[in-house]
Each structure stands twice: as structure tokens, then as C-alpha cells.
Specification:
It is built from 2 helices and 3 strands. The chain has one domain. By secondary structure, the protein is an alpha+beta fold. It has a 3-stranded antiparallel sheet, with helices on one face. It starts with a helix and ends with a strand.
């Protein structure tokens, strides 16, 4: 008699210790919600990092343009001419999204009324995002 009472008490305890399917599904749903909100924030930070890298790359390309001008006393006719001065070579001319940077020499009005030329480097992020220019306006 005592042995059967102990066995039935163990069975009841075992049944109570297990999770129901509904409890497991609720926990999984909560974890999915937390993971999706974290991934949204992560993707935003990754996109911000790409924009920062693009600005840094454009700054380096601008310096390569200026170095070319200093050495040859003329602006490069296209962006390919400065690739040899970049640490990464041709790879340095690709933006973080895999497209080629655009560069052109533009006339700029100085505060004293004179005009000067300088390189203007741009890239277009995908997805209809605004164009990135260097130097920034």
C-alpha cells in the first residue's frame, strides 16, 4: 500500500514538472519577438557603418585627387587614374554596396569672390536612400 502511494505521488510530481505545449510556444514567441527587434537594430547599425565607410573612402579618394594634381599640375580626367595611389588599388574605387564611386572636378566660388576647382566624390546607396557626397555640403 505504501509503495503504491509513493509511485502515484512520483507520477503526479513528474506530470507537474513538465511544460505544456502552450507554455513552450509562448516562450518561443517571446524569443522570436526579442530576436527580431534586436536584428532590426543590428541592421540599422550595419547600414550606418557602410555610410561611414563610404565617407571615409571618399575622403581618401579626394586626397588621391589632390596628390595627383600636386604631382602633375592637372586634375585626373577620370577616377581610374587615381587608383594607383590608393592603398587598395581598384578595390578602393568601389563603395560598400559594390558600385563605383563617381568623381568630378567642380568650380567652387570662394568667399573672396575668386573661383577654385576641387574634386567632388559621390556614391548612391541602394534602396532610394539619399546620395552621399564628399566634401559634404
Amino acid at each position: 500500500m505504501l509503495l503504491t502511494q509513493v509511485r502515484s505521488a512520483r507520477r503526479r510530481a513528474t506530470r507537474r514538472a513538465a511544460f505544456t505545449l502552450l507554455e513552450v510556444l509562448i516562450v518561443v514567441a517571446i524569443l522570436v519577438i526579442l530576436a527580431s527587434s534586436a536584428s532590426i537594430a543590428l541592421f540599422k547599425y550595419l547600414e550606418d557603418a557602410k555610410v561611414g565607410r563610404a565617407k571615409n573612402d571618399m575622403r581618401v579618394i579626394e586626397q588621391a585627387y589632390k596628390k595627383h594634381y600636386t604631382e602633375k599640375l592637372s586634375w585626373p580626367s577620370n577616377i581610374q587614374e587615381v587608383a594607383s595611389q590608393l592603398e587598395q588599388g581598384q578595390q578602393g574605387l568601389l563603395d560598400p554596396w559594390g558600385n563605383m564611386y563617381n568623381a568630378q572636378v567642380v568650380e567652387v566660388q570662394m568667399p573672396d569672390g575668386t573661383s577654385s576647382q576641387r574634386p567632388l566624390i559621390t556614391c548612391q546607396p541602394p534602396g532610394g536612400k539619399p546620395q552621399i557626397t564628399w566634401p559634404e555640403k
